[in-house]
Amino acid sequence: MIKKLLAILALLAVVLSFSNCSSDNEEDDGLDFSACSLNGPNFSISEVTGNWVATQANFDIPGTTQQVDVVAEGGTVTLNVQADGGFTLVITEVGEAGETTTGDLAFCEGIFTVRYDDAPNIPEILNASLNGGIFQITGPVEFDVDGDGSDDEAFVILVLERS
């Protein structure tokens, strides 16, 4: 659940389309993460290095009225981004233990890309922007929106401020 939200972190760049990076070390999906960069077309990982706290963490199931905003319901979402692109995302819903997701952020051919430690061969791309100290990530993720214990195909809007 959190690893997919983290994909949201991959948000660091506005994603218009996904292009594969190429090299002799291509992973299962054709993406060689080692060929990617910490510099994107609109911002770089160095600009988002540090600690962030969400002011909004809205997840909804497209085509339905089912949605949850972890922050509005009293939970917390924090993100720590390291200079090398490593990240830690912690989502804590009210009354539950925090769920931690870790991985790496980079730009592959200019597109913000997230690679999770628990699924390194399955990178994710999201929309991301950095404007006026607000880091926003949006896009398709997996998250247990309906609370049944199973992740749902969801859409996230994650708005973060420096903490």
Provide a descriptive summary of the structure in words:
Keywords: Signal. This is Lipocalin-like domain-containing protein. It comes from Poritiphilus flavus. The protein has 163 residues and is mostly beta strands. It has a single domain (2-162), classed as Lipocalin, CATH 2.40.128. Helices cover 7% and strands 47% of the residues. It has helices spanning 2-9, 45-48; strands spanning 50-60, 67-69, 76-81, 86-92, 99-108, 111-116, 119-125, 127-131, 134-143, 152-162. Strands 1, 2, 3, 4, 5, 6, 7, 8, 9 and 10 form a ten-stranded antiparallel beta sheet that branches. Strand 4 and strand 5 (99-108) form a beta hairpin. The model is unreliable at 3-28 (pLDDT under 50).
Quickly describe the structure:
With 163 residues, the protein is mostly beta strands.
Essential attributes:
163 residues; Lipocalin; ten-stranded antiparallel sheet; mainly beta
Question: If you compute it from the alpha carbons, what radius of gyration comes out, rounded to the nearest whole angstrom?
Answer: 15 Å
Number of helices: 2
Number of strands: 10
How much helicity do the residues have? under 10%
* Helix and strand run: HHEEEEEEEEEE
**What general form does the structure show?**
globular
Computed structural class: mainly beta
What do the pLDDT scores average to? 84
Oligomer: single chain
Keywords: Signal
Protein name: Lipocalin-like domain-containing protein
Signal peptide: 1-22
